Amino acid sequence: MSLGKGIMRHLMLIALLVAGALFGARPSHSEPLAPDAGAKPKVKTVDRVTTASAFSPAVLPKLIQAAPTAPDRDELEFGRQLLPEPFRIPNVQLETVNWTELDGWITDDHAAAFAAFLNSCKAIVRGAPPRHAGQPFYAALQSVCRRAVREPPRDADAARIFFERNFRPMRIARLGEDNGFITGYYEPIIEGSRVRTEEFNIPLYRTPPDLRKPYYDRAAIEAGALAGRKLEICWLKDPTDLFFAQIQGSARVRLDDGKILRLNYSNHNGWPYTPIGRILIDREIVPREEMSMQRIREWIEANPKEGRELRLRNRSFVFFRETGLAEHEEPIGAQGVSLTPGRSIAVDKSIHIYGTPFFIEAELPLDGERTEISFQRLWVAQDTGGAIIGPARADLYFGAGDGAAQVAGRIRHPGRFTILIPREIDPVIAGRNTPLPRPRPSFVDEQATQIAERPAADPKAADAKSAWANGRNAGPAR
C-alpha cells in the first residue's frame, strides 16, 4: 500500500514538472502557444494542414519556417482587438477569402510590393493626421507599420509571409456588385518655357492666394480671369498638354534650356470633374471599347474648335506647385510619399486610408489595345483623384513618359478588388466575439409557452363544466 502511494506521489511530481515546463511562462504576442503534449495537434496553414505527432515550443518555429504559407495566428497573436465588433464600411460588401483564392498571389513580386508599402509605413508611423485621429483602422495600420519598419523582411518569400501574417484578405465591392473599376495614370513629359513666347503661350498657374471654392471655372480662366497676376509657373505650347497634365495631377516640363521642371498638384477651383471621354462615348464619336487617352487627344487635335468646346465642358481646373524633385525621382502622391510605378494606386480618400494594400485581379490590355492579359498584383493606396470614387475604384500609376502614357491610357476595365485588413481589427476574430441574437421561437414553442403561462383553471368552474358534460346540468339547445 505504501509502495503504491509512493509511486503515485512520483507520478504527480513528474506531471507537475511537465506542466510547469510547458505552461509556466506566459507567451508574448510573437510567441505561439504550446499545444497539449498528449494531443495530436494540427498546425494550420493557408495551403495545407500538417498533422504532427507531438511538438514542443522549441520545434514550432521550425514547422512555421518550413510551411509554404504563413500560419493562421488568429487567437495567438491578434487576440486583442481594436474593434469590439466586425469591421464594416457603409454600403460596401466585404467577403473573407483565403490567400490561396487570390489568383497570382504566390507568383507576385512581394519584395517590390513591400518596398512600396514601407514607403507608406514610414509616413504612417510618424503620427496620424488629424482626420484619422481615433480611427481603429489607422491605429491598426500603424501597428502593422511599426513591425514593418522595425523588422523588414529579407527577401520576397519573407515579404509574402509578412503580408499573410499581418493582414486578413477580404473581397470588397459596392453592394450588389462583384467587380470594381480600374483606370491608369502617368506623369506626362511636356515642352515648356519659363517666359512667354510666341510658341509657348499657354499659362500653367500656381494656386491663387484668393482661392475660394467654387472659383472661376475653366472657361473663365482660359478667357483670362487670372491674367496679369503673376501666377504663371511656366508656359506651354498646347492647351491639350495642360489639360492632360491636370488630369494626371503632375508633370515634367522640359524647359527650352534643357532643364526639367517638376510640378505636382496643389489645389483646384472646386468645380466637379467631368470626364470628357464619357461625352465622346455618349455622342457615339468613339466606341466604348476603343476609348483611351490617346483617342481623346487625337480627336481634339483633329477637331480644334469642337475640341475646345469639349475641354470647356470639364469646368474643373487644377493648380500646380513646384516640387524641386530631381529628374530621376518619382512624383509625390497625396499621402506625401514618392509613387512607385506598377505598385502605387489612387483611391477614394473618403473611404480608404493611405497605406492600405489592395490585391487587384483583372484582364488588362498592357501589350496593345486588342490584347488583354491576366494581371494580378499587390498595390498600395498612396494617391487620390477627383474621378476616383467608390470602394472598389483605383487608378494605377505606371510611371512617366510616352510608354507609360500609352499603357495607362488604354485601361478602363473591371477588376476584382481584395483589401488587406490589419489583423488587429480582423473581422473574423471580432465576429467570433459578437453575441448571436436569441433564436426566434417556432410556432410549436410559442404554443407550448402560451400553455405553460396560462393561469390555472378555477376548480369550481371545472366541476361545473364536468357536470354539464355528463348531462346533470343540461339546458336548452342553442
Please describe what this structure looks like.
With 478 residues, this protein is of the alpha+beta class. Helix content is 32%, strand content 21%. The protein is built from 15 helices and 16 strands. The chain has helices at 2-23, 60-66, 74-77, 110-124, 136-150, 156-166, 218-222, 239-248, 276-282, 293-302, 304-313, 402-410, 427-432, 443-453, 459-469; strands at 42-44, 49-51, 92-96, 167-174, 180-187, 189-193, 202-205, 232-236, 250-255, 260-268, 318-322, 344-346, 357-364, 373-383, 393-400, 412-422. Strands 5-15-12-14-13-16 form a six-stranded mixed β-barrel. A six-stranded mixed β-sheet has the order 7-8-6-9-10-11, covered by helices on one side. A hairpin with a 4-residue loop joins strand 1 (42-44) and strand 2 (49-51). Helix 4 (110-124) packs across helix 5 and helix 4 (110-124) crosses helix 6 (156-166). The longest helix is centred in the N-terminal third of the chain and has 22 residues, at 2-23. It is globular, with a radius of gyration of 33 Å.
Are there runs of 5+ residues with pLDDT below 50, and where? 16-77, 459-478
Mean pLDDT: 81
Main sheet attributes: strand count, strand direction, barrel closure: 6 strands, mixed, barrel
Radius of gyration, in angstroms, nearest whole number: 33 Å
Indicate the percent of residues in helices: 25-40%
How many strand units?
16
What is the gist of this entry?
The protein has 478 residues and is of the alpha+beta class.
Name the features.
alpha+beta; single chain; 32% helix; disordered C terminus; 21% strand; 478 residues
Task: Give the SSE layout.
Elements: H1 2-23, E1 42-44, E2 49-51, H2 60-66, H3 74-77, E3 92-96, H4 110-124, H5 136-150, H6 156-166, E4 167-174, E5 180-187, E6 189-193, E7 202-205, H7 218-222, E8 232-236, H8 239-248, E9 250-255, E10 260-268, H9 276-282, H10 293-302, H11 304-313, E11 318-322, E12 344-346, E13 357-364, E14 373-383, E15 393-400, H12 402-410, E16 412-422, H13 427-432, H14 443-453, H15 459-469
Parallel strand pairs: 5-15, 6-9, 12-14
Antiparallel strand pairs: 1-2, 3-4, 4-16, 5-16, 6-8, 7-8, 9-10, 10-11, 12-15, 13-14, 13-16
Helix pairs in contact: 4-5, 4-6, 10-11
